[in-house]
Amino acid sequence: MTEGTRFCKNCKRDVSTANFSLHEAHCLRFLTLCSECDEPVARKDMKDHQTEAHKQVRCNLCCRSMQQYQLEHHKTKECHKRAMKCKICELEMPFNKLQEHLNTCASRTERCWECNKYVMYKDQKKHKDICQNSGLSYYKDVNFQTRNAYTNAKFIDPTVIISGCKQPV
Ligand SMILES: [Zn+2]
Ligand SMILES: [Zn+2]
Ligand SMILES: [Zn+2]
Ligand SMILES: [Zn+2]
Ligand SMILES: [Zn+2]
What we know:
There is one protein chain. By secondary structure, the protein is an alpha+beta fold. The protein folds into three domains: about 1-45, no CATH class; about 85-130, Herpes Virus-1 (2-Layer Sandwich), CATH 3.30.40; about 135-165. The protein is built from seven helices and ten strands. The protein has a two-stranded antiparallel sheet. It starts with a strand and ends with a helix. It binds zinc ion (5 copies).
């Protein structure tokens, strides 16, 4: 038997092809779409659904009134007082405060350790990639020290002195 699904128009769900005719018969008989929210609901539960899902409730954060079934979506995606995290400093605050906070948060500056320039907090990550001194300064220092060490070594290396000054041992 081939695996596959067919879309049931009645309940708006994908149903496995194998069970489709069975499902459809059953579905048409027992399920119906709620005219208000388009959710498949068992016919016998429609009254309950209407009273439960479509009763008026208030969001306890912003006090907006809406129907019960909308509340969850509202609280997670819409409510302007839902808690959101600032993506810069990760502080949690109500959504309606976030934009203002983001502006201040984003314009805060911090000194870059590498180049001593003040970099906006929001640009820190970007700056690390483009900072002229990042990594380089360390590398340069190391190079410099190695060269010094090398020069010193040359200076005290007897064989070099011999060859350099052509003096007998
Ligand atoms: Zn169905
Ligand atoms: Zn409904
Ligand atoms: Zn709300
Ligand atoms: Zn912040
Ligand atoms: Zn820098």
